[in-house]
From TrEMBL, chains A, B:
Originating species: Streptomyces muensis
Positions of the UniProt region annotated as Disordered: 426-446
Name used for this protein in its record: LLM class flavin-dependent oxidoreductase
Residues that coordinate or bind FMN: 56, 93, 143, 147, 217-218
CDD domains linked to this entry: Nitrilotriacetate_monoxgenase (cd01095)
Transmembrane regions: none
Entry-linked NCBIfam families: FMN_nitrolo (TIGR03860)
Claim: Flavoprotein is one of the keywords in the record: yes
The entry's keywords: Flavoprotein, FMN, Monooxygenase, Oxidoreductase
């Protein structure tokens, strides 16, 4: 059997295109509709995806006038989806800057238990002052400090997830002994950002701990991914950039003493699918026609950290822009957008049109065969272990991918046709269950 | 129709009796079994209970040798139960000392949305140094400080839950206007314990916010309840004490400017049910026979804040004990236990036996008629608006209550026979949906 693709369905209310909510099919309340997400999860499961994914930030994003804002808290929604599905992995974003390790470690362990080992955590440090101001800070912590906190957060969470050995529960009713206290290991962590004394109050979960996912592509982000991540979501506009990123990340993972095969790289793609190329382009055009460009200008000025009113719709970006290391927010997104505009000499209007679909992710507009070809090329030429599928419109865009692209990928032997027996998310991604740091493998083997 | 009882099923792994896990029927892994809780929730729904409830504390409780420890994180479990039930309310404990208002407000709003308005929050301040040490503190905050933080936490949470007016979403696709920014009200809170700038990132939920429940019976606790609580769980050993508590709390609620009918008082009872009185006593004896008394002595010494080795199994409590105001932990529980021992001149062994069943809650051992009689008496004589039902063994104790006591209560016209149309938890408790603090009722009526 050839190497298998890993597919992740990135679900976001009415779709990834910013104008998707304005289409006739779209429900303006989709973002808080459990039914909407249950339907999507079941479609993704029909497409034998490895996992689905919910992004998140602990603040109210855009102005409400522009587009849907707010969302169900992702771990809550994933728990509900766990009961509505059987096989698909459930990955949620949660912030290391605005959670405490004890609470978050417990919530992921609980999701992993109720889902039978299908939990994944997309670890983010959360850029932006608005989030910071919801948690007692005046401004966002510096990028490097956020990552230092994230690393310590992970160390604490891993201690907590390993604080129960797998066989700590004895259940000896006759002797009146329920558990073995020698198999409980309090965290006893005293660090720069956290001090956590005790053991977690949930036993070790089916996966040991959730699949660890990461999506930052800055230097700090890649360093962090090489050390901890088992899957990486990334935005890449060209196969050359994607191959360079892939090779770089695998090399960093090896350098960190890990098996590079134990980190899966999944670029995001926005498939705009038509039965002909012209039909796909027409759908793309319909979406662009629904963009409110004044809003796009505001958001672009915000991303580029330019004063309001700087950008002109039908002009190129200004020649002088701040360097990436002056950006405190989403560094790699900033560079990707600036490079895209420069490389293709896009006007502000054109750039907004391109970003409207996937916020910097690659749009693949075409027939199912063309989309499948691009996927196969990237996958077989060292650019990807799989893809983060970001339909521009939901549910129709996911339906189209599952009904028309998935069968081609299956026919080419790149994707499973059925799930087979129930298994954990980590097994879906071809990764081993992590050993408990308190248990010596030699002792276990005896 | 006579005034209706409110029943809440307090679910705790294999039951409220500390020895329940040792009975043949009990599953040593019940505490992390979704199936176990789904079955219990469905039994409670068959009994047309108003709600079910999960207690919690963010630390690993007892030594594992003694009895089941750890639990699924309650909001995670309630979310899963929301999808497995239709009518029953879903109440979880969460701590104001060890959560941030933004995250917790959002999680409860999300649960309220996915459950169709069935969420309730049992607000606790969390006693004990072990919890404190899991959140960066060396020792627990003082009792009064915990309650001051709790009050500010509530104020912030209420601002966040009201930060979206109910009709903030417009969904005007033609004009490209999704929401009305004038109907979003950032919290802009700057206080002693919290500073929270923005609006919540979830729309206002079906109930506006979760039913607010409280269970502290100290002076600080009652003051807090009178101001915020819509339901109160309490431990009362005698009808006289219960009536005094009930009258006191209703008066305090009126004094706080609220309708005393808008706070429901639910004493906890541990029903030990047999088809004859002798059968009930035999079940009680079986449970006591399974208590490991050395563990009970340790826990009692801890509650009474006595040095290890002070208590003797077959002697009375020492004559001199610290006064309640010297206790930093669960003040009202402390006084209840001491008074119970003194009033009935119980030896330490007898006291442990009595506490083993319900940790200070009233045990009602008898036939279904006897249990129903006691419920009716308390309910009709000013001691209760309903009850927190704490089966000593689960699932059998809840089955027994629903199969044998519930029909009697229905026959007497004290309890609904069916739910009728789907409704919110707050409506089940006979309470109005709270108005949004940013919306003037006069303006709404125009």
């Amino acid at each position: 059997m050839p190497r298998q693709l890993h597919l992740n369905a990135f679900l976001m209310n009415t779709g990834h295109h910013e104008a998707s909510w304005r289409l006739p099919e779209s429900d303006p309340y989709a973002h808080v509709s459990l039914e909407h997400y249950v339907d999507l999860a079941r479609v993704a499961e029909r497409g034998t995806f490895d996992s689905l994914f919910l992004a998140d930030g602990p603040q109210l994003w855009s102005n409400l006038a522009q587009r849907p804002a707010g969302a169900l808290e992702p771990l809550t929604l994933l728990t509900a989806l766990a009961t509505a599905t059987e096989h698909i992995g459930l990955i949620a974003t949660a912030s290391t800057s605005y959670n405490s390790p004890y609470n978050l470690a417990r919530r992921f362990a609980s999701l992993d238990i109720v889902s039978g080992g299908r939990a994944g955590w997309n670890i983010v440090t959360t850029a932006g002052a608005e989030a910071a101001r919801n948690f007692g800070l005046d401004a966002e912590p510096a990028h490097a400090e956020r990552y230092a906190r994230a690393a310590e957060f992970l160390d604490v969470a891993l201690k907590l997830w390993d604080s129960w050995e797998d066989d700590a529960i004895v259940g000896d009713k006759a002797a009146g002994v329920w558990g073995d206290d020698a198999k409980i290991h309090p965290a006893r962590h005293q660090g720069t950002y956290f001090s956590v004394g005790g053991a977690l109050n949930v036993p070790r979960s089916p996966q040991g701990y959730p699949l660890l996912v990461q999506a930052g592509s800055s230097e700090d982000g890649k360093h962090f991914a090489a050390r901890y991540a088992e899957a990486v979501f990334t935005a890449q506009q060209t196969i050359e950039d994607a191959r360079a990123f892939y090779a770089d990340l695998k090399a960093r993972t090896a350098a960190a003493g890990r098996d590079p095969g134990h980190l899966k790289v999944l670029p995001g793609i926005v498939p705009v699918i038509g039965s002909t190329e012209a039909e796909a382009r027409a759908l793309e055009q319909t979406l662009e026609d629904h963009i409110v460009y004044t809003h796009g200008v505001e958001r672009l000025e915000s991303l580029l950290q330019l004063p309001s009113g700087t950008l002109e719709l039908d002009a190129l970006l200004p020649g002088e822009l701040p360097p990436e290391d002056a950006i405190e927010g989403a560094k790699s997104r900033y560079t990707l957008v600036v490079e895209l505009a420069r490389r293709e000499r896009l006007t502000v209007r054109q750039l907004i049109g391109r970003l409207g679909g996937g916020r910097g992710h690659l749009t693949l507009a075409g027939t199912p065969e063309q989309v499948a070809d691009a996927i196969e090329t990237w996958f077989t030429q060292g650019a990807a272990d799989g893809f983060n599928i970001m339909p521009p419109v939901l549910p129709s865009g996911l339906d189209a991918f599952v009904d028309h692209v998935v069968p081609i990928l299956r026919e080419r032997g790149l994707l499973r046709s059925e799930y087979g027996p129930r298994t954990t998310l980590r097994e879906r991604y071809g990764l081993p269950r992590p050993a408990n740091q308190h248990v010596s493998p030699e002792l276990t083997a005896v």
